[in-house]
Amino acid sequence: MNRNAVRTTPKVASMALNIGAYVRISQDDGANRESNSIKNQREIIKSYIVGHDEFRDAVITDYVDDGISGSRSDREAYQRLLADIERGAIDCVIVKDLSRIGRNLIDVDDLLMNYLVTLNVRFIAINNGYDSFAHPLSNLELAIINLANQHYNKDLAVKSMTAKNIKSKRGEYLALAPFGYKKSETEKNKLVPDEEAAGYVRMIFSLAVGGHRTVEIAQILNAQGIPSPSVYKIRNGWKNMWTQVIDPDYCFWTNGVIYKLLKNEVYIGSVVANRFKVTEPGTGRTAPRPADEWIVVKNAHEPLVSEDDFQKVQLMLPKRKYFDKPEHIFGNKVKCPACGHAMIHYTKQNPRFKCGTAKLTDHYGCANHTILQSDIEKAVIASIRAYADALLDKEEMKLAHIKKSKVSIKELESKIAAENRAIELLEASVTKIFTSFASGKISKDAFLHKKDIINDTIARKRFEIEKWSERLYTLTTGRRTVENSIGELESLRTLETLNREIVNLLIDRILIHSDSNIEAVLYGLRFPSQFRRYRAAQQKW
Ligand SMILES: [Zn+2]
């Protein structure tokens, strides 16, 4: 599916407008189930369409998803709607309210920015009072509308947590089976050893009991070519659409993975649940809970390691927490191009980055050098400036083109106003000739003839108005969009300091090459929709 396809044929006003009416009912609707019934949603959309003259000749296509949660995006009718939008078969999408599209900001933002704005498709959310042609979209506006949807999801998350906890207390293992185990085929949510992987787990514990440090264990496993948990999952046909695609060529044992494995009580037969709480409902973001809130059930399944060995290893493991590093503006975006992994951030003395793979395996030929964070910042700023510079030229040309446009916005506005006045007069004159007819001054035929002529004139004028309105819309929103993006680009062109927000918005990844060359790969700008997801050509510093 090509999400960035841009439809080039200009739309002609009104003529057989194609409306996609999207209707969805879900288990999540709970108490609102009645008001969200398919029938009710359809009726609301139908009466909206009837109440709006501009839709009088529209062709309406129904897209109905029945009973699937809005947190999932693989809804069949919804996918069909997106495909139809892409092939240009839909001019306008109407829903009862925004939560029909999805429960979180990302879903709705994705639809609006990637499909509707790019393809110039109108979007109406009736109960939110939202019409994209009346209020051109901005991320901020959407964020506000979406707050309501997010609150809804929060309640839902609490409810399903409670149900999960009851199952966990019975010793059921609800997550995907951890490395070394698989789910039983006869007992629901019960773990049984997966013999091959279980062997590797036992080997890791026995190396640890023998006094090997985590980094040494990782080295040994990598040297022996033992598959890491990710590689093992892929080899065994494991698929999960919610996580990133894993490239088996860049998966190896790290000390972090070994550390987590050695800390996991699942290997002495315990189920540990409720360790995390949802912090931002709808986004899947979580934070750890204090240990006394955990649910721990012992002897829930066959252990792979004895309790004695496990406790011995715990005493030997370093107290240091691997995953609690102080944050820095680059997150995990600084990467080693040889192994593909995020580089490790060191904060002693001058903050700097280094690839952590070199010490674990020599398979990828990772460079062993460190690079200063301040150098990376300089390189990234230079890339962003060059990028903004290049785009600015393009946008300025666009603006000049719009300004040169033969018809000005003012002219169009006064033309439309004049035609509207003319229509009012014509309508008044119909009333007048009707009075003449009623009082016997003119014949019925003469009345009907005159009335037809006037009605034809009115229809022609309405058609003209629609044409001009369409043009006016393109001119005003086009100009506003271009002016906004010029403003943003100008501030980026003179960018002095980086912060996390700018990095998150613009930078996909930063590659540190073995010759110390720093390469910033940019996403493109999010705000002006036409650049969204645009990936700048690789810019070297
Ligand atoms: Zn590397």
Describe the fold and architecture.
This protein is an alpha/beta fold and 541 residues long. 44% of the residues lie in helices and 13% in strands. It has 13 helices and 18 strands. Among the domains are: 18-137, Rossmann fold, CATH 3.40.50; 162-316, Putative Large Serine Recombinase, Chain B, Domain 2 (Hect, E3 ligase catalytic domain fold, Alpha-Beta Complex). The strands form 6 sheets. The chain has a 5-stranded mixed beta sheet with strand order 2-1-3-4-5, with helices on both faces. It has a 4-stranded mixed beta sheet with strand order 12-16-17-18. It has a 3-stranded antiparallel beta sheet with strand order 13-14-15. Strand 1 (18-25), helix 1 and strand 2 (59-66) form a beta-alpha-beta unit. It has helices spanning 38-50, 76-86, 105-117, 139-169, 195-209, 214-223, 229-235, 255-263, 307-316, 373-404, 409-438, 444-493, 500-506, and strands spanning 18-25, 59-66, 92-95, 122-125, 130-131, 181-183, 191-193, 271-273, 276-280, 285-288, 295-297, 334-335, 344-346, 352-354, 370-372, 507-512, 518-522, 539-540. Residues 1-14, 239-245 and 525-541 have low confidence and may be disordered. The site of zinc ion (ZN) has 8 residues, from loops.
